[in-house]
Design brief:
The complex is a heterodimer. In chain A, the strands form 3 sheets. In chain A, strands 1, 2, 3, 4, 5, 10, 11, 12, 13 and 14 form a 10-stranded mixed sheet that branches. Chain A has 15 helices and 14 strands. Chain A has a domain of about 35 residues. The two termini of chain A are about 25 Å apart. By secondary structure, chain A is α+β, with helices and mostly antiparallel strands. By secondary structure, chain B is an alpha/beta fold. Chain B has 3 domains: about 270 residues, 2-enoyl-CoA Hydratase, Chain A, domain 1; about 180 residues, NAD(P)-binding Rossmann-like Domain (Rossmann fold, 3-Layer(aba) Sandwich); about 180 residues, Orthogonal Bundle (N-(1-d-carboxylethyl)-l-norvaline Dehydrogenase, domain 2). The radius of gyration of chain B is 28 Å and the shape is globular. The chains are: A alpha+beta, B alpha/beta. Chains A and B meet through helix 1 of A and helix 15, helix 16 and strand 13 of B.
Chain lengths: ~425, ~700
């Protein structure tokens, strides 16, 4: 297996859906990231092998959003591109595919990442309405048309909100929030603990922003309906967040006895992220200084109704593949889908008594608070589904570099009952 | 028969006449010899029609050009109305013969089809066009101050309807393949490669059918009645007068021919058309417009063997309004620029400017929303130099301050590759001085854009002592590729355009100080044909800017450029023009010009002088001629035509006058220099100090265009 390098990772600011980035469709959350990296490095336009992007809310206009991104970024037309979908980990899947291709020696230069415009998730018509349209088109004469027309019922027009459907598991029928409630009950995580966690996430995020920690990873994006604004910071972390104000929120998913609120879960956000990945030959050829080495990745499945524990199993898997242990990790990024979920992950990782329920008969490795999401997480920044899997690796790599630390692990839970994890080695000293 | 300009072939009883087989030029034009060969070949076809020949097809051997019209030098060479009349009648005759052929006739058009080319195509019963982006049809004769003289004025409205036809002829605008099909100008649209097989197929089918009445489609007059027609023409006349301000006779003549010829038969109409053409072709305005056509055409020539460096990637240094406009130009031409500044607010200003320029195109349906998104987001706004090592051209547009610019350039030079061309969009600072800041001055030049960048076609490329030819040539090519008009000038205060503009503005201010009212001044200058009066222009530029530039001019040129006091006074009172909505005029929220500003009136003399219009015009335009002579003496430009080109595209000097120096020639240089000397006595001996260059020209009885 050849070595795979993460030359540089960049991302958009993450902005609450329906606000400043709502006019920006998915391709334009990604193309300028690639353009910037191409401007910066001296890779000839003709030498990029592939563009792989994760995206879940596939826009009707861009069925293969990666190809559009590649062309809009000004890459050569011969550069191939495909899009991947592994729900919340789509961006990580893109990195995984890039890893495989370079490790196998099939490619030398790949752009991989993810984009998601949660603002522009489509509204869909139901099956009844679709059938109605099809039958109308098939109808040959007025009589047939009238007959079909008479079958129309108003409820046909009820839209299916793609984003809502997408966040509900088709197998267990539970909403993602409800799966978090399952974990809160199972692991005895109280409402107060969750709110405290959420509050900490905001505080860490605000502090990091003030210290300019994200200046190197965020590329300002052109936004607004006239495309004449420039957004250069995440919009989401709240400076005035307090445990008291979080405590006032009503449970969202289980109205009566629930503990999960919109305050202790991640908001819905627009954003994109991307890495330039290269083989060792390419790194030498173009005289680049990669920020990190991509050590390995792993995906793992479990019960859909406990999807939030995915990071634990995936972390275990990737550490095995890398022949490393959790305590070797200097920094640990776990995507914060829900406070309850991430605390449950910490719980599972710290005890083989618990993890053996998933056939892991050893302790996965404790995740100490001081290593976990040191600059805040998705509860503050939000979760652009197709991008987050790459975004947490971007943030991890930059923080490792700033600390001149050695290893880091990033993991996230995946709707449908999976987890994904990546280990990277920092090369900036 | 042997043809040298066209090809003639009969295949399956169909005659094929091909253009563009014998020329190396990219555009095929109709010359005298081509017309002669057309005459002969069509006469031949006429005899064999419906016997050996059952169809006729016109096509071009050249991709991307059917016919670009009659060679403009032929029109320019017409020395009398009689000669012009004869030429028209000949062309009309050929087109009539084509129209009257009792067989199917088709023109296959791929690419450019303009003027005489379209008139020929219109004589065919069908037009098939290619869907190529280059396909462009139109009758642009009005832009040369004439009208379509080979039957186009007659046939186009009959083909696509009076109002639409009239619109195309009056504006001279061209239509693309989609629009041409929608207008009914072309009957079928297809990929260029399919044109020939489609017409073969069409002819084979047509041969089996019995031919219908030939003139069906042509004589089918528009159904509108007398009264609606009357209203249409009245409205059109009002619109034309508003647009042309009465300076251009051609549009009015076109309306006259269309209206009075409307219900007449072909022969009567055509003779009206020919007479109108003959008359217009000899007008001063048409001669001036033809002159400009050649000036422009010459400026677009770029020798294929000329060495130059292709700009693939560009960057703008310094965002803001001007930087944003330049970034827009890069983005508009698919060159995805980097736009760097030192603070985010300036970047946003730049983005706003670029967005504004694009939105104007979207509004006029010249651009789709998707294209807008693509191009606008192709700009990379940044606060760092990341990416500069890969760019081929940097245009600096930071604040007009020599020390800052020098600092910027010496820093910039360490961030770019060795052969990156560096330019400054300075409007008034010395390029020679700036070049001193650079280790490699040979790759540096001035590149002066005019504001607003999207609307002003001119770009001054400014040389200095150590610049290399390659740099100048590469910039020239880049400006052409960016669809702007380049003019290469030497270094000196105000370079070319601003140096000539300055005495105009300065003298206007002196006239105001003498007691001429802003309204009277603007009116006189508008009557001369300028797009804007000087007071309005000063408001647009910004009166404080004029004070600064005025000082630079006075420092550089001496007493003849001594600055007026009025603009200093106005600046002190914060009457800066449009930017403060307080200038010579008041402006409303939308920027519409209102009354004369009472605050400005206060600093103008209370004793008003009543000066006649011609006197005002002479007072402001003669100093321009005088300064232009100085510019030629200083070798800022090589030829008077550069002055004319610069002023037409840089400040909108009235095109119908053919440019400042052509205008001066037409007035007589002796008369002009006498008048200047008279002003020297009566008004000011410094400001009207006759240029020695001009004096020598008068003494040797030369005109500017004899140089």
């Amino acid at each position: 297996m050849k070595a795979v390098y993460l030359v540089e990772g960049v991302r958009t600011p993450q902005v609450k859906s329906g606000t400043d980035l709502k006019e920006i469709s998915a391709p334009y959350l990604g193309h300028y990231l690639i353009r910037h990296l191409m401007n910066k490095y001296e890779i000839p336009n003709t030498d990029v092998d592939e563009v792989i992007m994760g995206n879940t809310g596939t826009p009707a206009k861009y069925p293969n959003v990666s190809r559009v991104i590649a062309l809009e970024a000004g890459l050569h037309k011969k550069t191939s591109a495909y899009s991947v979908h592994r729900n919340c980990a789509s961006g990580m899947q893109a990195l995984g595919n890039a890893f495989d291709s370079i490790a196998l020696g099939r490619s030398d230069v790949i752009f991989a990442g993810g984009v998601e415009s949660m603002s522009q998730m489509p509204l869909l018509y139901g099956k009844e309405m679709t059938d109605f349209f099809i039958n109308m088109m098939k109808a040959k004469n007025v009589q047939d048309k009238l007959k079909i027309l008479s079958s129309f019922r108003l409820p046909f027009l009820n839209p299916i909100i793609a984003i809502e459907q997408g966040l509900t598991d088709p197998f267990c029928g539970q909403n993602m929030g409800q799966t978090a409630e399952n974990l809160a009950r199972e692991f005895n995580i109280t409402r107060e603990q969750q709110d405290e966690y959420a509050n900490r996430s905001h505080a860490k995020a605000v502090k990091a922003m003030k210290e300019g920690k994200f200046k190197d990873e965020i590329l300002p994006i052109i936004a607004g309906s006239k495309l004449d604004k420039l957004i250069s910071e995440d919009i989401g972390p709240r400076e005035n967040s307090s445990i008291e104000s979080l405590a006032k929120l009503k449970p969202y998913f289980e109205k009566v006895t629930g503990t999960v609120t919109v305050g202790n879960s991640c908001p819905i956000t627009d954003g994109g992220s991307c890495f330039l990945l290269c083989s060792e030959e390419a790194v030498k050829r173009y005289n680049m200084k990669p920020m990190a080495r991509f050590v390995n990745y792993h995906f793992h499945g479990l019960e859909p109704e406990r999807m939030g524990l995915g990071p634990a199993m995936a972390s275990h898997g990737v550490l095995k593949r890398s022949e490393m242990s959790m305590d070797q990790m200097d920094l640990i990024e776990v995507n914060e889908a829900f406070a309850a979920q991430i605390m449950a992950v910490q719980n599972v990782c710290s005890s083989s008594e618990v993890s053996k329920r998933w056939d892991i008969n050893e302790t996965i490795g404790e995740i100490p608070d001081e290593k976990l999401n040191v600059n805040g997480g998705a509860i503050a920044f939000g979760h652009p589904v197709g991008s987050s899997g790459c975004r947490i690796v971007v943030t991890l790599a930059h923080e490792l570099a700033k600390r001149k630390a050695k290893y880091g692990i990033a993991s996230l839970c995946i709707g449908g009952g999976q987890g994904g994890a990546v280990v990277v080695e920092n090369l900036i000293q | 028969m042997e043809y040298k300009n066209i090809t003639f072939e009969v295949k399956n009883e169909v005659a094929y006449i091909g253009f563009g087989n014998f020329e190396n030029k990219s555009m095929t034009t109709l010359g005298i010899d081509t017309l002669k060969e057309l005459e002969d070949s069509i006469n031949g076809i006429k005899e064999k029609a419906n016997k050996e020949i059952k169809g006729l097809v016109f096509f071009s051997h050249k991709r991307g050009c059917f016919l670009a019209g009659v060679d403009v030098s032929i029109i320019q060479g017409l020395s009398s109305e009689a000669e012009a009349l004869k030429g028209c009648e000949r062309g009309q005759g050929i087109n009539n013969e084509i129209e009257d052929l009792p067989i199917p006739t088709v023109a296959l058009i791929d690419g450019i089809c303009l003027g005489g080319g379209l008139e020929l195509a219109l004589s065919c019963k069908k037009i098939f066009i290619s869907d190529s982006k280059k396909t462009m049809l139109g009758l642009p004769e009005v832009k040369l101050g004439v009208l379509p003289g080979f039957g186009g004025t007659y046939r186009l409205p009959r083909k696509i309807g009076l109002t639409k036809g009239m619109d195309l002829i009056l504006t001279g605008k061209t239509v693309n393949a989609r629009k041409a099909t929608r207008l009914g100008l072309a009957q079928m649209k297809m990929p260029a490669e399919r044109l020939m097989e489609k017409v073969e197929d069409y002819m084979a089918k047509a041969a089996k059918q019995k031919s219908k009445g030939i003139k069906d489609s042509i004589e089918n007059l528009a159904s509108d009645n007398f009264f609606t027609r009357k209203i249409i023409f009245q409205k059109a006349r009002e619109a034309v007068l508003k647009q042309s301000k009465g300076f251009y006779p051609a549009p009015l003549k076109i309306l006259e021919v269309l209206e009075s010829g409307y219900s007449k038969n072909r022969q009567t109409f055509l003779s009206m058309e020919a007479n109108a053409f003959a008359e217009l072709s000899q007008t001063e305005q048409s001669k001036a417009l033809q002159h400009i056509f050649f000036l422009t055409d010459n400026s677009k020539k770029f020798d294929k063997d000329q060495k130059y460096k292709k700009v693939k990637k560009g960057a703008v240094l310094g965002a803001g309004t001007m930087g944003g406009g330049i970034a827009w130009l890069f983005a508009q031409n698919n060159q995805a620029p980097i736009m760097k500044d030192i603070n985010e607010n300036s970047l946003i200003l730049g983005l706003k400017q670029s967005s504004k320029n694009f939105m104007a195109l979207v509004k006029r349906k010249k651009m789709t929303k998707d294209e807008f998104t693509r191009k606008q987001t192709s700009i990379s706004p940044t606060l760092s130099y990341a990416g500069f090592q890969n760019v081929d051209l940097v245009i600096e547009a930071v604040i007009e301050d020599m020390n800052i610019k020098k600092k910027v350039f010496s820093e910039l030079e360490t961030k770019v590759k060795d052969d990156c061309i560096l330019t400054s969009n300075t409007s008034s600072l010395s390029v020679n001085e700036m070049a001193k800041a650079l280790e490699k001055p040979e790759r540096f030049a001035g590149l002066h854009f005019f504001n607003p960048v999207n609307r002003m076609p001119l770009v001054e490329i400014i040389k200095h002592d150590n610049v290399s030819d390659d740099t100048i040539q590469s910039l020239y090519k880049w400006v052409l590729d960016s669809k702007k008009t380049p003019v290469v000038v030497g270094d000196g205060p105000g370079f070319l355009v601003n140096r000539i503009l300055m005495p105009f503005i300065n003298e206007s201010a002196y006239l105001l100080e003498e007691g001429v009212t802003p309204e009277a001044l603007d009116k006189a200058v508008l009557k001369f044909g300028m797009p804007m009066g000087p007071c309005r222009l000063m408001d647009e530029i910004g009166i404080d800017v004029l004070v600064k530039v005025g000082k630079i001019m006075e420092d550089g040129l001496g007493t003849r450029a001594k600055a007026n006091q009025l603009s200093k006074l106005a600046t002190e009172k914060n009457l800066l023009g449009r930017k403060t909505n307080q200038g010579f005029y008041l402006y409303d929220q939308k920027g519409k010009q209102g009354e004369v500003n009472p605050a400005m009136a206060e600093i103008l003399p209370s004793n008003k002088v009543d000066m006649d219009e011609t006197q005002i015009q002479l007072r402001v335009f003669l100093p321009m001629v005088n300064e232009a002579a100085n510019i030629l003496e200083d070798k800022i430009v090589d030829h008077p035509s550069m002055v004319d080109l610069g002023l037409i595209y840089g400040i909108g000097f009235p095109p119908f006058r053919g440019g400042l120096l052509r205008y001066a020639d037409s007035q007589g240089l002796e008369k002009i220099s006498n008048q200047i000397e008279k002003f020297a006595d009566e008004v000011d001996k410094d400001r009207y100090n006759l240029s020695s260059f001009l004096r020598e020209m008068v003494e040797s009885k030369k005109n500017f265009y004899d140089l």
